[in-house]
Specification:
Helix content: 25-40%
Shape: elongated
Distance between the termini: 71 Å
Number of strands: 36
Largest sheet: 5 strands, antiparallel
Radius of gyration: 32 Å
Oligomer: single chain
Strand content: 25-35%
Length: 628
């Protein structure tokens, strides 16, 4: 039962107890005795016995209206909504005064929505709003319920979702939920509850994909899973930075842990910029690891549970801010997931038009803020509650958990219909960083958008394995830089468009020590055809050269220009010299002494590949720098 349903039931039971302290409608003493006896069982949660006594009371007096109301509440608590609806309608038929009719109309709107009887829910909501004029909380709830019933009636067409449960190898526990996926789709991390009870321990488990199949899940780490409750996590693109929820005597807070090799560190509390004295949970980390979305019911929000946001700077996480009414409603928003494109945000809410309860919605980041969240449609959403939801980097595959009973939930794979596939997809560039002898290196790796001349991600390769993983967003040109002190920096270039393959880009990088005659190709310098003037998007790479020279003040370099064999020898020689001189001029303008920079044109004399294809000729048209 979700929190809204739980609190609704508790509040209504308290209210009904107050009302029932007034004289009962029946004069039958035995019926009254049975009614009060039923209440002794109801308050202890012994619903079977309470139902039996209430049915006996109704048998003694068919017009015992209060007994129908209390019986309907119990059926509702058991989530037997059809029977609750029938019982409430029986009680309503005995009433004429509005004071008690609106109690029934409120409940009838609710239970009909929760078993997808949308026409009846809308009709009961209309009647309730006609007679209720003072209880704002209930009026607001019923307005939302009516908007959901109206939306559901107008949007009955099923979209072409293909929803498939993961194998029993993964769904091996009574409850598993809140899936998180590494950007390369090789590790699935989720929360598991090992017993059927609501208070059983929670741990984080990981399943790894081998030859296209998810393997049996195992504990993510003994450093992470303890006697406290660990769950609801998010993982960085490279699978080495985990933010998770830990609940203990302090309540629920967000913690972080990092992996070196195969060892996770002890989780550390993210501190007061993120956590509050209230409930903080359900984190989602952006692909670059610098934006964090999460859920909290702290003061200062728009509704009950809201989505909050923090940004990571050089000094740490900023003080969390509420995403505001663009995303949050006066009700509950939970389970945020920011796609690797850093533009598409998925949330779960019970405050927007939908199919009842919690539905999954999507919003796109605009220059001015967030767009209005849109319902993801049927059959992904239905009259039952949906909770966690995440979309893989390819934008076409998703995962979520679905409650199948109070004590059973499973993880599902979802193939998205064409109209729901993420427009701005992402891919992954991954590999290993080593030295020339294949020893793993911990190096700094940065990804720049050349069109924006902006860094969009930064990671370190693993110090034990040399592995790295970065998300490569779609729709632009990118430069990847790998740096380590004592080595020449290495640059790569990607022109990644929407139609590009979704297969990961594998780039293993061997860094070259700073020593005489060591050289690297500057892969992100750009010239127009037969021109020697540097194009603006070359600036990112040129600044890398400036930084390298500033960090190695004793180094002198040669800037060498190379062409393919398309032109005459004289023409190629002149063009290569002028291009090298253009680079040297940039360095001079950035305070690099001219005595440290030698230029040389090689024309077409030193090709990297035979000039027998467009691809090879492009490789041969290059600028290199060499240590002198």
């Amino acid at each position: 039962m979700n929190m809204l349903k739980l609190w609704s039931f508790i509040i209504l039971c308290v209210c009904s107890s107050t009302v029932m302290s007034q004289p009962l409608s029946t004069k039958n003493k035995k019926a009254q005795e049975l009614y009060y006896e039923a209440d002794n069982y109801r308050v202890r949660g012994q619903f079977k016995e309470a139902i039996s006594f209430l049915n006996e009371a109704i048998a003694k007096d068919k017009n015992f209206e209060e007994a129908y109301y209390r019986l309907g509440l119990i059926y509702k608590a058991q989530e037997n909504y059809p029977l609750a609806s029938t019982t409430f309608e029986q009680g309503l038929s005995l009433l004429k005064e509005d004071a008690r009719r609106r109690m029934y109309l409120y409940e009838l709107t609710n239970v009909n929505l929760w078993h997808a009887n949308y026409s009846a829910a809308a009709a009961f909501a209309t009647q309730f709003l006609q007679i209720e004029k003072s209880d704002k909380r209930k009026m607001d709830l019923v307005k939302v319920w009516k908007s959901q019933a109206d939306y559901a009636l107008a949007n009955q067409t099923d979209l072409k979702y293909v929803i498939t449960p993961l194998s029993d190898t993964v769904n091996a526990f009574p409850m598993q939920y809140f899936p998180a996926l590494t950007a390369d789709n090789t590790q699935l991390i989720f929360t598991a509850r090992f017993g059927g009870g609501r208070n059983d321990n929670e741990d984080l488990l990981v399943s790894r994909k081998v030859n296209g199949r998810w393997m049996a899940p195992v504990s993510i780490s003994s450093n992470i899973n303890t006697m406290q409750r660990e769950g609801a996590c998010t993982i960085s693109a490279d699978g080495r930075h985990l933010i998770l929820t830990i609940c203990g005597s302090f309540g629920c807070d967000l913690f972080e842990t990092r992996r070196t090799g195969n060892v996770w560190s002890q989780p550390k509390n993210l501190g007061p910029s993120i956590n509050s004295t209230n409930w903080d949970s359900q984190p989602s980390l952006s692909a670059d690891g610098r934006e964090l979305y999460f859920v909290s019911d702290r003061k200062g929000g728009v509704g009950g549970y809201d989505i909050w946001y923090s940004h990571l700077s050089e000094t740490g996480w900023s003080k969390a801010k509420n995403l505001g009414p663009e995303i949050n409603t006066p009700f509950d928003e939970i389970s945020p997931y920011i796609h690797v494109n850093n533009q598409t945000l998925y949330i779960v809410s019970n405050g927007y038009p939908g199919y009842g309860g919690y539905d999954i919605y999507v919003s796109e980041k605009k220059e001015t803020g967030w767009a209005v969240p849109l319902n993801m449609g049927k059959p992904l959403n239905d009259h039952k509650d949906q909770y966690s939801f995440m979309v893989a980097s390819d934008g076409a595959l998703a995962y979520y958990s679905r409650e199948e009973s109070k004590n059973r939930s499973r993880l599902y794979r979802i193939d998205l219909p064409a109209e729901k596939i993420v427009k701005s997809k992402g891919n992954v560039v991954k590999g290993n960083v080593s030295d020339s002898k294949t020893n793993p290196l911990k190096a700094s790796i940065e990804l720049f958008d050349l069109k924006l001349n902006k860094r969009i991600a930064r990671v370190n390769s693993d110090s034990v394995t040399g592995e790295y993983v970065m998300v490569l967003p779609g729709g632009s040109e990118y430069a990847l830089y790998v740096r380590k002190k004592g080595y020449l920096f290495h640059s790569l270039h990607f022109n990644y468009e929407e139609e590009a393959s979704s297969e990961p880009v594998i780039k293993n990088i061997a860094l070259i020590p700073v020593q005489q005659n060591a050289s690297v190709v500057l892969n992100n310098l750009f010239f127009d055809l037969n021109k020697y003037e540097l194009k603006p998007q070359s600036e990112t790479e040129l600044k890398e050269v400036v930084d390298f020279l500033n960090q190695n003040p004793e180094v002198k370099i040669e800037i060498g220009g190379h062409t393919d064999n398309s032109g005459t020898e004289v023409y190629n020689q002149e063009l290569s010299e002028k291009r090298a001189q253009s680079v040297a001029e940039f360095l001079k303008n950035h305070q690099i002494p001219t005595a440290r920079v030698l230029t040389k044109g090689y024309g077409a004399k030193s090709p990297l590949k035979p000039n027998n294809s467009d691809e090879n000729r492009q490789l041969n048209r290059r600028i290199e720098f060499k240590i002198l």
